[in-house]
């Protein structure tokens, strides 16, 4: 892993580097080592950032818009009277406190008045809300460290952790004592499992099986089994890898305990995503000399003499051109990358053939613009019983310097309830059909019905009487209501066995490197942190291949509690002998 101490600000090349040349070849004209970054999402922009700081001539090829799945999508034509278009999103952003690599990048994106750069645009979400649809009172889970038992804030021990988690689950979630104890024991099993067991046993075990969910109560199933997988959006609970869910839950727990965190457990941006992050990032990268080819599509990679000789691309007018460079960083999402991994490339690196089989699912953003402020919760909301696995956040409440009706749209929208629809295959409650079979208007109506079923089911309106004045569905979804719906932005999911199909950042082709949320990184979950981490690994591999003396990009590992390291070492011995984990007594 790279060190944390070296400051990369000393390696900025600034605007004096000049433009990176003309035409599709771009960066090769400067005399500096040239890199073609294919894809302009979080991974591609991170790779461009790290490489430009180290003196490389970088050209980024992006088919639609910078930011990828993290970008804002303004609602076209919605602005009136000098106001900006309403802020649409591909999906809301969560910046977990256990993220370290992404916040490091955010700090290095200048923002006037922010000594901490874009990192200073993050604000804390105070709570998570688990909303039920059966009349049960909704569950508010505060993120404040003040709610954590004192016995867990100091030296951790397995017995203390077991008892406190058991008590917390029993009293807060009102689960039977035996189920609370079972969950606490299963969590302790994961926390004390060595990396070999996590990858070799738990990655091939479903999360429901790991939690011994069969025959347990409805609340155990929907809160502790299904609940954590909602954090992973499109991942299906039934076949979710216990390795992936476990590591995210582990890192959330340590963050709540104040262990190894960059900040509070859950953070969001203080303005629409492009305004707070993507636009300042683009401006900064241009000052560093990065060239952008927006609207350019990558069609193929040409392998000659064991190296990538060029990428076949199409410009915005559809003309076919060759993008040439000394090095190539493939930062395309895996559902697009596998289309350009041709047979010659797959034969050169069989790991790409396995990576091409990684599963993706639909995860789509839908915004409701409401007629009044509607602070449903001071954080993210998980609609526990929703067929479409809905989650939301009331965004405008986190935008202190934005007046939604004065600044955006036609003046009618007072709040932006940003939703994510994560299950497109289960029938809904209004039309009795899955989302992918419905027209956009029906999807909006169905989503609103599922919301109201959760928020207005206890005799009072969780929506406060708010109604939508308009709505916006991510335009990446096309053909809805017809026989062949499509989605341009699918999401990597985490079924059992998927960890072993994740490729490393360095390929067997010397000048080709991979950056994306599907690459094998310490946080085994598709996320902005995963994409950023993979890009840093790709850059370091590229620096090694180029023989560069520039400092390597820091790659921060996930947090490991020192109190459990001896237990993990013991578990490694047990695992190699074919024995269960010391605490795995629920068999």
TrEMBL record:
Residues 42-542 form the Amine oxidase domain. It comes from the Bacteria. InterPro entries: Amino_oxidase, FAD/NAD-bd_sf, TAT_signal, Zeta_carotene_desat/Oxidored. Coiled coil: none annotated. Pfam families: Amino_oxidase. PANTHER family: AMINE OXIDASE, PROTOPORPHYRINOGEN OXIDASE. This is FAD-dependent oxidoreductase. It comes from Saccharopolyspora rosea.
């Amino acid at each position: 892993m790279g060190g944390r101490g070296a400051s990369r600000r000393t390696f900025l090349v600034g605007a004096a580097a000049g433009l990176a040349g003309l035409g599709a070849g771009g960066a090769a004209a400067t005399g500096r080592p040239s890199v073609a970054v294919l894809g302009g999402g979080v991974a591609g922009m991170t790779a461009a950032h790290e490489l430009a700081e180290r003196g490389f001539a970088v050209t980024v090829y992006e088919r639609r818009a910078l930011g990828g799945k993290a970008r804002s999508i303004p609602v076209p034509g919605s602005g009136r009277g000098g106001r900006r278009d309403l802020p649409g999103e591909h999906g809301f952003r969560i910046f977990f406190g256990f993220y370290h690599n992404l916040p490091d990048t955010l700090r290095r994106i200048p923002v006037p008045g922010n000594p901490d750069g874009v990192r200073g645009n993050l604000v804390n979400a105070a709570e998570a809300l688990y909303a039920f649809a059966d009349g049960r009172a909704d569950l508010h889970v505060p993120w404040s460290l003040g709610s954590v038992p004192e016995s867990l804030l100091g030296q951790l021990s397995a017995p203390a952790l077991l008892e406190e988690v058991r008590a917390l689950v029993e009293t807060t979630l009102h689960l039977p004592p035996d189920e609370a104890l079972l969950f606490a024991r299963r969590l302790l099993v994961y926390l004390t499992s060595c990396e070999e067991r996590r990858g070799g046993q738990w990655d091939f075990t479903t999360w429901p099986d790991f939690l011994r969910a069969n025959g347990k109560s409805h609340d155990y199933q929907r809160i502790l089994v299904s609940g954590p997988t909602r954090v992973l959006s499109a991942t299906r609970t039934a076949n979710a890898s216990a390795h992936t869910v476990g590591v995210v839950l582990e890192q959330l727990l340590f963050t709540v305990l104040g262990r190894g965190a960059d900040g509070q457990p859950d953070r969001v941006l203080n303005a629409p995503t492009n305004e707070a992050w993507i636009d300042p990032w683009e401006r900064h990268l241009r000052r560093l000399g990065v060239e952008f080819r927006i609207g350019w599509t990558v069609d193929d990679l040409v392998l000659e003499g064991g190296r990538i000789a060029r990428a076949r691309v199409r410009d915005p007018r559809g003309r076919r051109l060759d993008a040439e460079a000394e090095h190539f960083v493939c930062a395309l999402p895996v559902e697009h990358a596998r289309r350009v991994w041709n047979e010659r490339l797959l034969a050169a690196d069989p790991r790409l053939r396995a990576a091409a089989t990684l599963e993706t699912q639909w995860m789509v953003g839908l915004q409701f613009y409401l007629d009044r402020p509607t602070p449903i919760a001071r954080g993210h909301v998980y609609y526990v019983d929703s067929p479409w696995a809905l989650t939301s956040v009331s965004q405008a409440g986190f935008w202190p310097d934005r007046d939604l009706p004065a600044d955006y749209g036609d003046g009618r929208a007072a709040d932006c309830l940003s939703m994510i629809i994560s299950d497109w295959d289960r029938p809904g409650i209004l039309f009795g059909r899955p989302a992918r079979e419905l027209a956009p208007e029906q999807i909006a109506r169905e989503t609103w019905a599922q919301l109201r079923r959760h928020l207005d089911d206890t005799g009072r309106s969780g929506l406060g009487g708010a109604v939508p004045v308009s709505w916006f569905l991510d335009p990446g979804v096309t053909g809805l209501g017809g026989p062949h719906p499509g989605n341009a932005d699918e999401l990597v999911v985490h079924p059992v066995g998927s960890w072993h199909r994740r490729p490393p950042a360095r390929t067997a082709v010397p000048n080709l490197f991979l950056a994306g949320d599907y690459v094998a990184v310490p946080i085994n979950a598709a996320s902005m942190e995963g994409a950023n981490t993979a890009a840093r690994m790709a850059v370091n591999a590229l620096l090694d291949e180029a023989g560069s003396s520039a400092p390597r990009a820091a790659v921060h590992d996930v947090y490991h509690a020192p109190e459990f390291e001896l237990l993990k070492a013991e578990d490694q011995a047990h695992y190699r002998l074919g024995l269960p984990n010391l605490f795995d007594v629920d068999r």
